[in-house]
């Protein structure tokens, strides 16, 4: 590779930031995403993303389920440029019926923005998504939203992050007043205050100050709020964690930003700080060792497969995260699982749901590949020598149902459907050891609905799902496995690779089994 080409590659990698926003529904993810897109010039009008959310695919031809339920089944990718950075936001479904896809999408992100409602604090879905990010050890940045409303005190929220999520935090800015009294934030890193102005809080004034004790703040915010600010920041200086970039990079410390997405307050400084602190694409491990993003050979892996984006064509889109090199439209790459060269001719990039053909892309970018049924989740593509990236994690299902075919003559189509939908990661399939029953496991109820709908629509098979009382699945590794042990409030099944899995009805049953089988290992995901 020439020196100039190498230089370009390095530059392209350095400027990329690929992240996901994780939050509980209603925390303001759509609102924040929209403001970020506005800054990046990716949309021109406020309300564009919101309108899409509201009209819910009136213009889209996605699955009927999405229309009926008014939610997005899938995650999309949004890209824009801002201050020399190329930003990729991986969207994750915000509805509580999220699925394994949501989790898998997080494996393609280099960092995460955790969005929290100032009044509600850490909520259920945030915890789950946080845990997936924490397992990967990626940096997590926190945006506390809706500061214009009454909420919990910043100190209480920091304590909650530590108690519930086990992560220490370092506030990058601090509110001056809260709720109706909110008049601005003090930026601890830049030594400046950002003030709300006007009754509608619409204009924002930025003022450089000489530390938080600067009398200018007193003049602007009044005596009472300034005294309060000084007391709180003194406490934070003494008792709080200092900013430590290495801890942030290891995911042990989360920088916190306070703001109000709807008022566009604190969003721009958040974005600018975040882009500076967030990591560029990192190397990924593979059978060929660590693959550097600046490696001149293109490589990437499929983390998500989306079916039926265009029902007229029954096509699928495979979402590929580029790990290294430069992608060029029409290039030939090795599809390592099947050992064949394939041509990437119609790659797509996404802004919300509008798709554009992409001509070139680099490490950190996500491209959508037209998939006539040749890709599976976790597939690696590479130029030149074979590179196979580490397998994507599977996630422990939490909801289970026994599946039967209504018409026995349709068994062949049924099997085909089950196989394909398992490959896409829509469902996980288990078979009971004693009777040959099939049990499906999913993370969110919606996955069952998608399964039923697609079995009928695409394979012509009516299925019946009967919910089972299990809540936990644990892969069991035990030299002397005794199936008779797993009868009370649990059942022993096999996954599609033949690994033994125990399904438990409740945590008590699971704990008891773990205690009674000290030599066995109980794993949350397949070994
Ligand atoms: P989500 O994608 O995380 O589900 O949240 P979304 O952005 O849709 O926001 C949920 C609700 O919270 C919306 O109100 C939105 O306007 C409001 N919101 C977002 N950011 C802020 C903020 O900084 N301050 C305040 N006070 N509210 C905020 P809604 O009534 O459900 O919808 P809408 O009628 O406003 O569209």
UniProtKB/TrEMBL annotation:
The GO cellular component terms are:
cytosol
Annotated CDD domains: RF3 (cd04169), RF3_II (cd03689)
Provide the residue positions that the database annotates as binding GTP. 23-30, 91-95, 145-148
- Cite the GO molecular-function annotations of the record: GTP binding; GTPase activity; translation release factor activity, codon nonspecific; translation release factor activity, codon specific
Keyword Cytoplasm: yes or no?
Answer: yes
**GO biological process assignments:** regulation of translational termination
Q: Tell me where in or outside the cell this protein is found.
A: Cytoplasm
Keyword Disulfide bond present in the record's keywords: the answer is no
User: Can you give the residue ranges of the Tr-type G domain?
Assistant: 14-282
Q: What is its main location?
A: cytoplasm
**Protein family according to the UniProt entry:** Belongs to the TRAFAC class translation factor GTPase superfamily. Classic translation factor GTPase family. PrfC subfamily.
Q: Per its database record, what is this protein's job?
A: Increases the formation of ribosomal termination complexes and stimulates activities of RF-1 and RF-2. It binds guanine nucleotides and has strong preference for UGA stop codons. It may interact directly with the ribosome. The stimulation of RF-1 and RF-2 is significantly reduced by GTP and GDP, but not by GMP.
Protein name in UniProt = Peptide chain release factor 3
User: What organism does this protein naturally occur in?
Assistant: Paenibacillus barcinonensis
